[in-house]
Amino acid sequence: MAEVHYMSQEGLDKLKKELAEAIAQRPAIAAAIAEAREKGDLSENAEYESAREAQGLLELKIAKLQNQVLNAKVLDSSQLNSEQVQMLNTVKVENLGNHRVMEFTIVGESEADFANGKLAATTPIGKALLGHGKGEVVEAKVPSGILKFKILDIKF
Length: 156
Hints:
Blueprint lengths: L4 E3 L1 H16 L1 H12 L8 H25 L1 E3 L15 E6 L4 E8 L10 E3 L3 H6 L7 E6 L2 E11 L1
Parallel strand pairs: 1-2, 4-5
Antiparallel strand pairs: 3-4, 3-7, 6-7
């Protein structure tokens, strides 16, 4: 069974655009392969090998994106609430170790961008927060040890 990729409509639209752009690159790579093939002996043709490698990488990327789009499940924002942390909630937490307050939105892995406040639900911190409510303290096991977070606010 394929893995479901939970995401926002915005995330799905971004994936579809990335897929379309990748597919649009196919003709250029095919032309580069044809041009390199015309140059003669393929056994010692670095341009041909490079173009074939680029084609292989592009096809892998296309297959991955197609899989993500095919198995995407757009979360219905009307189903969201702020009682417990769930996907697409924006969560304000305090790191009890250093008393730093952070705010991020819990998203699917394909939408994660920590620098822009989007935390993947599959990360240790994301997993620790899911299902917990405002005021609760949760523990996240990370490579450097265990971090404790107090959930200050949940928004959608």
